[in-house]
Amino acid sequence: MEVINTNEAKYDRKAELQAFDETKAGVKGLVDAGITKVPRIFVQPSTIEDSTIHSNKNFSFPIIDFDGIKEDLIKRKKIVQEVGQASETWGFFQVINHGIPSHVLEGMTDGVIRFFEQDTEVKKQWYTRDFIKVFQYNSNFDLFGAPVTNWRDTFTAIIAPTSPNPEILPSVCRDILLEYTNQVMELGDTLFKLLSEAIGLEPNHLKDMDCTKGLFALGHYYPACPQPEITPGTSKHADNDFLTVLLQDNIGGLQVLHQNHWVDVPPTPGALVINIGDILQASSVTFSIPVSETYLSLITCLISNDKFKSVEHRVLANKIGPRVSMACFFTTGLLPTQKLYGPIKELISEHNPPKYRETTIKEYSTYFTNKGMDGTSALLHFRL
């Protein structure tokens, strides 16, 4: 006689996801309720991560010092080389002396905490899954599509190309959010010039491709987890933008997949973490049919035709918390653009043919959003 697992038979994942979503309290709401075990929707299947990949502490994560970048041409040339090498080999690096004052960095971290730790009933007014809203808060953008729910709550804000009306932003983090993202936009201008030069192009090449025009800000809140060994903070993924600038606190947990090893990104006081996104790995620009709607897309590795690497990364859950971070995605997905993105023409030759097909922002963002963070790369879908 076949034995039926009654617990398995009674498990209705969709219903549990719906019930969790309807609380509008996120993961923090579970922790506030005093849970001691992770709900089943957060339990990571053994197949979701490659068990043969282990953490490795023997790698030295690249840190690049921007001190003197504007005054000293010799230092600047060295920085260009360092940025290029890190982007080709790691796809990630940290920058120090980047020009954003420490009080602004600390203020932004505090602003994320203030938002998520305000009264739940006040916070609920921002809870939505309407991705075109200028400001929104929810838990897991891919809640109903991903194979596992991440131990993380998030707010998002569309910062550029159109500056948000301050009145529609939460007062608890409004001023610092606008100040911090304004300075990130300035840093982005510098970063894209360095990347253009590192790839052998004129300094303004990537800027002229609209890489600096759009900015999408995400504040992440990872509550302390009672069973961090069985659930992810953020599942393995690569960013689908041009470039990401990440501010993380001192708790740690971010890991990068490098040479088939998970490598910790050490929290460094005053540093920002920079990583290449999918579209920058792969793209050039031509014109397509008009795109009449605004889409949220996060695209980067296509542009460089694999010269730069958009690398998979993840965040581990932790018994210590909350961990907070602020990720700023440079993306043209918020523009009503007519452009197609594909490998830059200047980088293509008989010996270096294009590795990706051109794609519209709509197509890429729709594919990425529908796929969710399922542990696979969205770039594979666009590979020639």
UniProtKB/TrEMBL annotation:
Asked whether the UniProt record includes Oxidoreductase among its keywords, one would answer yes
Supply the Pfam families for this chain: 2OG-FeII_Oxy, DIOX_N
Record domain Fe2OG dioxygenase: where: 213-333
**Keyword entries, A-Z:** Iron, Metal-binding, Oxidoreductase, Vitamin C
**UniProt xrefs under Gene3D superfamilies:** B-lactam Antibiotic, Isopenicillin N Synthase, Chain
The molecular function terms of the Gene Ontology recorded here are: 2-oxoglutarate-dependent dioxygenase activity; L-ascorbic acid binding; metal ion binding
What SUPFAM superfamilies does this protein map onto?
Clavaminate synthase-like
Q: Which GO terms describe its biological process?
A: coumarin biosynthetic process; response to molecule of fungal origin
The cross-references to PANTHER family, in alphabetical order and at most eight, read: FE2OG DIOXYGENASE DOMAIN-CONTAINING PROTEIN (PTHR10209:SF862), OXIDOREDUCTASE, 2OG-FE II OXYGENASE FAMILY PROTEIN (PTHR10209)
Q: What family is this protein classified in?
A: Belongs to the iron/ascorbate-dependent oxidoreductase family.
Official protein name in the record: Fe2OG dioxygenase domain-containing protein
